[in-house]
Input
Amino acid sequence: MFSDTLSKYQPIALSVLRFYTGLSIIEHGLVKNFGFPTGAPYGMTTAGTLGWYGGLIELIGGALIIVGLFTRPVAFLMAGFTAVAYFMVHAPQNFFPIVNKGELAAVYCFVFLYLIFAGGGPLSLDAVLRKRS
Output
């Protein structure tokens, strides 16, 4: 009975998860490309570097994930991006994510993998566009 009550809110929870994940990853791009917010553990990167392009992917991908536009293909790109980030930056330091500080990149990867299959949910531009067609 409790499970049935919660299950009816699953589509909304999916949209909230998508929205927060987009907000969270867009912050990484803001720090890398604009140095905002200040006080982050790493700062702005130089334009044209790999980190700068990564920040651009985080900004554009994060914005599209926030509004839920092209959610599945963008989530596919972001899952790959965060997997590459994990294996390029974190995994060479140590095998264990808690030691190499890569647990966030790994969690992002798996949330984006979920969004590939689940889509953007009812509170997304994808849902609006689907209703119009």
Remarks:
- The radius of gyration is 16 Å.
- Helices lie at 2-7, 10-34, 50-67, 71-90, 97-100, 103-118, 125-132.
- Residues 10-34 form the longest helix (25 residues).
- Residues 126 and 132 are 10 Å apart (CA to CA).
